[in-house]
Structures
1.
Amino acid sequence: MGAPEAKIENYLLSECNKRNYMCLKFVSPSTAGVPDRLIIAKNLETGKRLVCFVETKAPGEKPRKLQLSVIAQMKEKGADVFVADTREIVDQIIRWIENQLS
């Protein structure tokens, strides 16, 4: 992971930490191309829970072909998967999570 990608990933981690969401580094040794982060969130008032995945990229960078394939397979099975290459997209993902939990 290069420095520009790390900035996006660190921003995602920071925004999740502010909201007490778990934002785990996701690694699957037997499957290449999985997203970078697994987010686990819960609204303590309503009990609603959410799990989603985020692939972080440097600004303007797109997922590799293998990553696109894995993301498509995950979505096909019902997973919520996002790709973030800017802080603005991270903000959109956080708003989406908040909306899902409300």
2.
Amino acid sequence: IVGRICKSIVAKARKENIKLGLIRPIMISPFPNEAFIPFRNKDIKFLTIEMNYGLMRKDVILALGNEKNSYFFRNKFGSLPSSKEILEEVRKLSMEGM
């Protein structure tokens, strides 16, 4: 469910000239570590968006080899985040370090 929202966020962010991509695992066991290997040791931020307590974020950190550029988002109630909430988080992260 969150993946569909994120797909639309990518399109919206790109219209705002924010470089944004999406890795959407179809299966999480085994976790698709190979998808993250090209991004290891690069200065690219990863935002893990979940409806739970960040279980996939741990897998992303392991796949990247560190948590330096790994961020986590879920709304405060643990329910489905809105596209507005996610896009605001993306904007915030894109402005950091500029």
3.
Amino acid sequence: MMDSQKSSRRGRPSKTQAQIDTDRKQIIKVAKELFTAHGYEGVSMRKVAEKAECQPSMLYTIFSNKRQLLHFIWEDVFNDFSSSLEKCYRESLSSQKLEKVCLATINFWLDRPDDYRAIFLIQDQLQAPEDKYFVNSIQVNNILEIFNKAILDAQKSKQIKSGDV
């Protein structure tokens, strides 16, 4: 009797982790395009679901709201940005770290104009009292720490003085 109960399960079969990851990547790609083209206010979760060719209910199982989806995109971009700066910092001579990190920053955003628009042209708005601004995230703090180390290196090598802007 137990076997017949298992085989008569109704509904759609569960998705594999690979299918869920593929869906998530498609949703993120579509959401990034929509946020870039229409800004935060011009995008709805229904628009994202429609363009990603998925049901809104499936979208909401992956991202509970539009802000969470936007923050996921920001987190992904800032992880790439942080990795790029860390590599630049590690591979640069001590006397060139600040200049190289600054140039790497400019080049990162020039190479990724859509990411630039998604990051810097969309205002982060708190929706609940427990929300925090993305600028307080680990990703942003990692980037600021890289700049801080590069500035301290430039001060040690007497390229800039403490307090120089």
